[in-house]
Write a structure and sequence with these properties.
378 residues, single chain, six-stranded antiparallel β-sheet
């Protein structure tokens, strides 16, 4: 039908605009956060673009759900404001006729949400964890950003270097502040390099510098000058054995099914809830779009955002209960979806005009007429 093609075209156009807006906001927020982490020495500056891409993929299911929900709400609200729905109802057509074109538009997005939730998001979580893990396992001197004070992985040493060579093995104008067993020391040197001994222990070897120990003007204060001074920063055995434990969010879906721990079952419940959430919210937008033609769209958007927040937070609460083994996953996965389904049915019954053969008043009137005719026949 021409009507269905026009509606789908308008839905796709609106969804593209909403998706672009939400994705831009999310990308900007992630860019600020990840650049701050890179500047603070928590991640490598070379991994910034990759981490932004992985983080964007993590948020993609939520963005797709909101895009589908808000686009249907905006298109139908526009129809009410332009009095198109008045003509629609005056012609004797029910609100249920909107379900088919909306589902035709939404089902590909629901499938996309499922693919993202079950496969792509866990993969991106794993890749992001590997990048952060590999950076955290580097020697302290390799994590140093020239011109900034950087704390070591053990939190007991602060580095500052003026310059680092291209292979990150030689540094110039080094400042190292160390605090161990209640004693502090400061080492300054003109240059340094990273060396590994026969036992696999790594050292930052400083050349032509000074070491200050203790508190100035106190009897224990010492000043030492050296030609060569080594600071141990780790060993290969520690680096090989420091493998990060993957969280349940980074595990493949098949692994969650194979290892049914409470944490894994909670994560599996969340992944399965996202496509169902996309479907129910999209259908819910049809009766929620009802409004006065003279009114604005802001109230509908506020209600839509609140509905999404309540829905997602409700699922998160049940997910936490499963994760803490306080509730079985068989009892936790369905209450929120059942509640939203009931709201969808009630809103459809409320919004349908009385000229619809499925309206409760029409069905009740037909039942009473049938009952009276049966009595008269008897």
């Amino acid at each position: 039908m021409i009507f269905q093609r026009a509606i789908r075209r308008e839905l796709v156009s609106t969804a593209s605009a909403v998706f672009t807006t939400l994705f831009t906001i999310t990308l900007t927020t992630m860019l600020i956060r990840i650049l701050g982490q890179a500047a603070g020495g928590k991640i490598s500056s070379q991994d910034v673009l990759a981490l932004i891409g992985y983080s964007a993929l993590n948020y993609m299911p939520i963005i797709v759900i909101l895009s589908s929900f808000i686009s249907v709400l905006l298109v139908l609200t526009r129809s009410y404001q332009d009095s198109e729905m008045v003509v629609w109802f005056a012609s004797g057509t029910s609100l249920l006729k909107w379900v088919r074109p909306v589902l035709t538009f939404a089902l590909p997005l629901v499938l996309l949400t499922g693919v993202l939730s079950f496969f792509l998001t866990p993969w991106s979580q794993g890749q992001s964890a590997e990048l952060r893990e590999s950076f955290s396992q580097r020697e302290d001197i390799a994590r140093v950003t020239p011109g900034r004070f950087i704390e070591s992985a053990s939190s007991n040493r602060v580095f500052f270097v003026e310059g680092v060579s291209g292979d990150a093995t030689r540094v110039k104008n080094v400042f190292v502040s160390t605090s161990e067993k209640g004693q502090s020391s400061i080492v300054v040197a003109n240059e340094g390099s990273v060396e590994t001994n026969e036992q696999g222990e790594r050292f930052v070897v400083l050349h032509q510098g000074r070491r200050y120990e203790g508190t100035p003007l106190q009897p224990d204060f010492r000043l030492l000058e050296f030609e060569r001074y080594g600071i141990r920063v780790g060993d290969k055995a520690e680096q090989a054995g420091a493998l990060a434990l993957r969280t349940s969010r980074a595990l493949p879906t098949f692994a969650l099914v194979q290892i049914p721990t409470p944490v894994n079952l909670a994560e599996l419940m969340w992944r399965a809830s996202l496509p169902l959430m996309a479907l129910l919210l999209t259908v819910l937008a049809i009766p929620m779009s009802f409004g006065n033609p003279r009114g604005g769209r802001s109230m509908h958007l506020i209600i839509a955002v609140l509905m999404f927040v309540v829905y997602s937070n409700g699922i998160s609460i049940f997910q936490s209960a499963v994760k803490q083994a306080r509730l079985s996953v068989l009892l936790a996965w369905w209450p929120m979806h059942l509640m939203v389904t009931a709201i969808v049915i009630l809103l459809f019954l409320w919004r349908m005009k009385t000229n619809s053969p499925y309206h409760p008043l029409i069905l009740w009137g037909a039942f009473k007429r049938a009952l009276l005719s049966r009595r008269e026949t008897a």
